[in-house]
Automatic annotation (TrEMBL):
GO biological process: negative regulation of cell division
GO CC term (a single one): cytoplasmic side of plasma membrane
Name of the protein this chain belongs to: AAA family ATPase
AAA domain span: 130-286
Domain of life: Bacteria
One Gene Ontology molecular-function label: ATP binding
InterPro entries (UniProt xref): AAA_dom (IPR025669), CheY-like_superfamily (IPR011006), P-loop_NTPase (IPR027417), ParA/MinD_ATPase (IPR050625)
Native organism: Peribacillus psychrosaccharolyticus
Amino acid sequence: MSVYKGLLITKNQELLNDHIQQLISEESIDITVIAEWKRTFHEQQFFHYIFVDIDTIDFPHQQQASSGSILIALTENHEFDLARSWLVAGAKDVIVLPKEASRFKHLISRTREQYQFQKETEHGIGTGEVHAFYSAKGGSGKTLLSAIAAQSLSIHHESKVILIDLNAQFGNIDVIFGVQPFRSYYDLIPVMGEMDIRHIQNVSTIHQETKVTLLTGPANPAKSENLPDELIGKMIRVARNHFDYVILDLPSAMNNMTFTGLNDATHIHYIITPDSLGMRAYQYTEDLFERFQIGRGKDLSLIINRYHAKSELTKKDIEKIVNKESKGKFSADYFAIQPFINMGQSFYKKKKDKGNTKVSKEMKKYIDELKKG
Ligand SMILES: Nc1ncnc2c1ncn2[C@@H]1O[C@H](COP(=O)(O)OP(=O)(O)OP(=O)(O)O)[C@@H](O)[C@H]1O
Ligand SMILES: [Mg+2]
């Protein structure tokens, strides 16, 4: 039985006969073929997949990523510019046939997961907590700790987790997960007014090993300057309706994105390093939070990162100086951690796995505590 409906748009009947027919029937997709884009067509009926033969069908100017269908471009030639413009217009991928038949299959099975996931979350199972990892001091471990926290929530607690990299440029989440996302939240700008979970899924990547959904920034200075102010807030709101946890990796600089992230967070994890610079940054942040009324009425947990026996300040010193108890302590563990990052490996493999590094063990404990509330 075919559960999925597909629309194939092509003027080339042979394409259908030669390659597509078999591929699609193996994936049990019910296919309808038309020779022209017709707006009304997918307004009347919902298609899970829209396959466009981009060799015979022109670029549709009206057709943005705005319909909930997954758009897949098919071609027999490898023409980079054409492929690119389709990707920008919202195609999930461009497949060169018949060469990339196996990539086609892989793409279909990946998107299946996406639909499965939508079904599970449609009824608002997600509790939608928003956890921001922040520190006014750069390099203190925001990216690393937010990534390991996301992995622990997903693997140990089987929660639905999205990790959003709000460093509009070069946030490095992709490096830690060993993925190369082609798209970013920059691509959500055209659908900002009508954004729903499918748009977010179309521009994000599900990390296979951990099932964490990753949404990254444009990694392009010109583009990151052009992100509209409302984009981030919208994105967080839509995401929290569908995920149990929205994890934010924030930049240290207090820009609009940082501000929105902190403001929309239900829980802030402030990372402090056990040295005077770390202290100074925290005290500065406390003032700032006070002035802008950030963090009011929400949980703010202080966590110490890069702790070691010879730290300039002990846990007690820190708590005394800032007059606040710390909720977690993460060891400086450079040599154990670096290989994981270099290889893009996940820190946990399965539910019972506490991880092989001090930091991953400490994170599991931290998240277990957090879940207990
Ligand atoms: N507890 C730790 N033990 C060992 N290495 C760590 C630890 N925490 C972070 N690091 C390493 O320190 C470097 C900086 O960490 P990370 O990128 O997570 O910081 P950040 O706060 O996100 O930095 P930025 O302000 O540049 O975004 C990375 O190479 C990371 O692997
Ligand atoms: Mg970072």
